[in-house]
Specification:
The complex is a heterodimer of chains A (about 220) and B (about 35).
Chain A: H1 2-7, H2 9-39, H3 47-51, H4 54-80, H5 100-103, H6 115-118, H7 122-128, H8 130-160, H9 168-172, H10 175-201
Helix pairs in contact in A: 4-8, 4-10
Chain B: H1 2-33
The chains are: A mainly alpha (about 220), B mainly alpha (about 35).
């Protein structure tokens, strides 16, 4: 068991802090929501009611979509674009999809290769893009959920203020929807760009996200 | 080797359940309240 925990440390660690942060978001979101209800002279919600409210759902989903967009773009952009000196980048002459030999597919696969890497046709094409496709699917679904829950939460707010509710289509072109969306995107894009650029000159000993401490600043695509 | 492969697979499956389960739950909330 000890070995199983150690060998899955990254996934367990991030899974655990995800649940703790989500719990914290739920508790503080509930408290904040009730402060606003009281100020408006409306009834408070129980925690259970808050967890089933569109206000909670939109706050969670708007952050999800931006994170998955970030990784989707990162996965795609790093196929075609390079950054001299960055361990996050491939070697400067490696841009593109690379050869079958480098990718260990078809006749270049080995006995331990996944079955769909050994075959050709649609199965290999699908498996060759499965990471980006899945991240892209999660991004699109989270963004869709943000729009649905956001629409519902926005209309509840409108009604509280004695204003007209809007249709889902109107919500999709509203400043509220795009402001929620873009405020998340901007921070993700800056963070990814920073990771690419800062890792040229800075190091973290032992991290695969960094070059080895003694690697030259202009070495590209090395991981420590 | 089998035991380790099973653990890897569990991490993968659990993450997918949390992600798509979470999305389905939030979509349901949005649709029911909307």
């Amino acid at each position: 068991l000890k070995k199983a925990l150690r060998n899955n440390g990254l996934s367990l660690f991030f899974g655990l802090i995800f649940f703790l942060a989500l719990l914290g978001q739920a508790l503080t979101g509930h408290a904040l929501f009730n402060e606003e209800q009281l100020a408006a002279g409306l009834e408070e919600l129980t925690l259970g009611q808050y967890l089933a409210s569109s206000s909670f759902a939109v706050d969670v989903s708007e952050n999800w979509q931006s994170e998955y967009l970030q990784f989707l773009l990162y996965i795609f952009a790093t196929v075609w674009l390079v950054q001299q000196g960055s361990p996050e980048s491939k070697e400067l002459d490696q841009t593109g999809l690379e050869s079958d030999k480098e990718q260990l597919v078809g006749e270049y696969s080995n006995e331990k290769s996944p079955a769909w890497a050994k075959v050709s046709g649609w199965r290999r094409t699908l498996f060759s893009n499965s990471l980006a496709l899945t991240m892209g699917l999660i991004f699109i679904l989270s963004w869709l959920v943000q729009s649905i829950a956001g629409h519902s939460a926005y209309n509840e707010q409108q009604l509280k203020n004695f204003e007209q509710p809007v249709s889902w289509g109107e919500y999709l072109v509203s400043p509220e929807f795009w402001n929620r969306t873009l405020q998340n995107w901007q921070s993700e894009f800056l963070a990814v760009g920073s990771m690419v650029v800062l890792s040229i000159y800075l190091r973290q000993r032992g991290s695969p996200e960094s070059k080895p401490v003694g690697a030259a600043h202009d070495d590209t695509g090395m991981t420590g | 080797v089998k035991w380790e492969a099973d653990n890897m697979r569990w991490s993968f499956v659990l993450y997918l359940i949390v992600i798509f389960g979470g999305l389905a739950y939030m979509a349901l909330i949005g649709l029911v309240n909307g």
